[in-house]
Amino acid sequence: MHVVLVGPGALGGLLAVYLTPVLEHSGGRLSLLDHNPDRAAFLAANGITLLEDGGERHVRPRVHADITSLGRCDLVLLCIKSNDVAGALTYLQPLIHSDTLIVGLQNGMTHITLLEDCAGIPAAGVSALGASLAAPGTVFFGGHGPTRLGLLKDNRECAVLDTFIDLMQQSGLEAGISDNIRADLWNKLFVNVGINALTAIHNQKNGQLLTSCTLRSTMKNAIREAMTVAEKSGVPIMGDPIARTFAVCRRTRNNISSMLQDVRRQRPTEIMAINGFIVEQGRQLGIATPVNRELVKKVQAIEAFWTRHHA
To answer: Which domains are assigned to the chain?
Structure first.
């Protein structure tokens, strides 16, 4: 199996470290695709190091800055921000055939339509793996958690997906196939709606959100708005999303959310794919979402501040 992993960030780096050895052992290969030629050259020369449990794991995957030398692939694994999915799918078009599995591992929901419109077999995933990028090629491991992947268009058999799940399990990752990936995506969205924007706005780790009555109340109200939108959209809600979000905050209390990582690096956030998605869906359904609208406004104000000062 030839897997093309797009994006050498935190999650992409973690997966590259775990998957490269097992793919090579099975006679397959992992190709890491990076749009940045300088960084690609650095990673090709130095490899990727995962700092985990006081030790480290190191791999040197095949790294490419363009697709011309990749050849045919079985699976494209998108480990990039939701904002970059449209451009990546356009660029990757020569690699994608009718039987190529395309898996999106983005936060939020805005990438789903883009995946459904691509030429290959569209799939999406939700992952509770924790990782943060210390520097190019160096990833801090933030904790194990399950990864679930599922086809977006139908539930037909997909041998490539089955094989990839087996490879993930052989590598030591907890992975499985989702019978309802859309519901899983929504239920992860509830958690991201409650956590990500608030950590970015207040510059706090996940667990710190629970120390403030005001922030806990905002989390609850943002999630309730998202649940109302989901219910009106016919989405099945699993369990208690508010309790689950609070549990995630406690379990990952020392983690820096992906949106806070973006803010600290002054990179574009995924606010429109998360809270912004709830606002837009609410608008279309005639549902008021004032809490999420305010969170979007505040994160966008942070982004606008960078733009003004870097102009």
So the answer is: 2-179 (3.40.50.720), 182-310 (1.10.1040.10)
